[in-house]
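S.,

As promised, the heme C run. Input:
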Amino acid sequence: MNGFEINKIVAAIIFTVLVVFGIEKITDLVFNVEKPSEAAYVVEAPTIKNVTSASSSAGVVDIKAFLALGTLEHGQKVFKKCSACHVVAKGGKNKIGPVLYGVLGKKSASIKDYKYSKALVAHGKVWSFAEMNSYLIKPQAHIKGTKMAFAGLKSEKDRASVILYMNSFSDNPLSSP
Ligand code: HEC
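Predicted complex:
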């Protein structure tokens, strides 16, 4: 074996190593699929009932008890999560999502100059306290095909608060039951 041949063997080894690592890198790039932040199948753990919960085991919500969990101050904080896409102030403009001034008590998908998903248009319900609560728990679960890309608010207090907060931005706020 002369020096030239050894050089060739070394070059071949280096080449192979580069190719193997290269392929690994490329597959990483190609198959590096972003993991969804939530599992597609969530195994629901039994929720521990406590006195501050307004939902009965049958899933029926006592709206009065539910709203009593919320405060306007907390709602203002929670709304920060919405404000990337929504304005709630009077005279506000549509952003990624429609302006939410006076949304409670109005029919869903009723802002004229906003292009809603077909799913929300077809939904056709009035935004009552209960309807809004169901939507905000997990929008895509309540209205399949809604383009509101928001995971939802798990906490009843957060939902009750943000609903009260939105209801305070209205010419005709819904009266509490
Ligand atoms: C990532 C952007 C985004 C975030 C964050 C977001 N939304 Fe939305 N929202 C949308 C979009 C887009 C729509 C339109 C949905 C459709 O057409 O299906 C929408 C629709 C709505 C509607 C229906 C309005 C109507 O006119 O019928 C309500 C109510 C609503 N959002 C409330 C909220 C609240 C409350 C929060 C915060 C807790 C929130 N959204 C967070 C994007 C967002």
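The chain has a mean pLDDT of 86. The CA atoms of residues 139 and 148 lie 7 Å apart.

- D.
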